[in-house]
Amino acid sequence: MTPVRDAAAYAAQLDEKVARLRELLAPFAAPEPEVFTSPAEHYRLRAEFRLWREQEERHYAMFEAGDKHTPILIDEFPIASQRINQLMPQLKAAWQASRVLSFKLFQVEFLTTLVGDALITLCYHRPLDAEWQAEAEQLAQRLGVSLVGRSRGQRLVIGRDYVQEEMQVAGRTFRYRQPEGAFTQPNGTVCQQMLQWAYDALGQRDDDLLELYCGNGNFTLPLSTRVRKVLATEISKTSVNAALANLADNGIDTIELVRLSAEELTQALNEVRPFRRLAGIDLKAYDFGSVFVDPPRAGMDPDTCELTRRFDNILYISCNPETLAVNIAQLNDTHRIERCALFDQFPWTHHMESGVLLVRR
């Protein structure tokens, strides 16, 4: 069981993160970061557990980094959402009562949302048959969840293979499908703060927005209401399909989504080579004033970083402040930091999310 930490310990660790971000951005004369805190408990909307067998009983287990042989057995997980903590003992009781559900079960994954939707993935070292599906359907109905069974070469879906989330930004509700196995922000409360900050930082504009690494449209939807139209790119097929569904679910028709990597879009905009996936899209018809990026931990590659330089405004969300600083150093001769923020997406760890608004000098 994860111990409950006190407010003073949380504040001290957050102060360390603020100092670290301040130090990284100091060479660029950054303003004081805006700081967005997380709930101390029940903030994590997804969790993954291995199962550890002991005395003929399977337990939820986690391991220290680098140690796969010394399990930490878990009955509850206070950093996870209340929905996950509610489901954990119910699911455990179900597999203990059923050999069909427990046989060769080695991993369990929970995906939940702020509005209480839940999906459970059960991973097996054996083929899943009709008997398993029948029991799994009863379990899903009893728990009020969707359920996915996975084994080598199999993926059986009971209910939906996604959860439904809602985020409130500037008084409007945005609805999201979040697929099983795809990336989603783990801390829903802080994600909502990130969306509001990005919305405010971009401001209301009368030109267009380019977005790189758009995922399932997490930022795309609210930011689209601040500009004339959006061209968004993403390479993952699962995320692209979720984003297209989210555009339809929210009735937004000012976003064009293309399945290209940031590097490929850079080539397209520089007219290095054409792409069939851009057929029917006139890049020259866009009047881009801003670019929004939320890259992976490695940050933007040098060519993509150079691409962003051509925009007056660069709105950058980062999960790695070190690579953020490297990218800002490349852009510092043409852009300055107007706003910056720290989002405590991962309390009780050294990780942090940050955001900067860079404007042309």
From TrEMBL:
One of its GO terms (biological process) is tRNA methylation. SUPFAM superfamilies: S-adenosyl-L-methionine-dependent methyltransferases (SSF53335). GO terms for cellular component: cytosol. It catalyses: uridine(54) in tRNA + S-adenosyl-L-methionine = 5-methyluridine(54) in tRNA + S-adenosyl-L-homocysteine + H(+); uridine(341) in tmRNA + S-adenosyl-L-methionine = 5-methyluridine(341) in tmRNA + S-adenosyl-L-homocysteine + H(+). One of its GO terms (molecular function) is tRNA (uracil(54)-C5)-methyltransferase activity, S-adenosyl methionine-dependent. Belongs to the class I-like SAM-binding methyltransferase superfamily. RNA M5U methyltransferase family. TrmA subfamily. This is tRNA/tmRNA (uracil-C(5))-methyltransferase. It comes from Aquipseudomonas alcaligenes (strain ATCC 14909 / DSM 50342 / CCUG 1425 / JCM 20561 / NBRC 14159 / NCIMB 9945 / NCTC 10367 / 1577) (Pseudomonas alcaligenes).
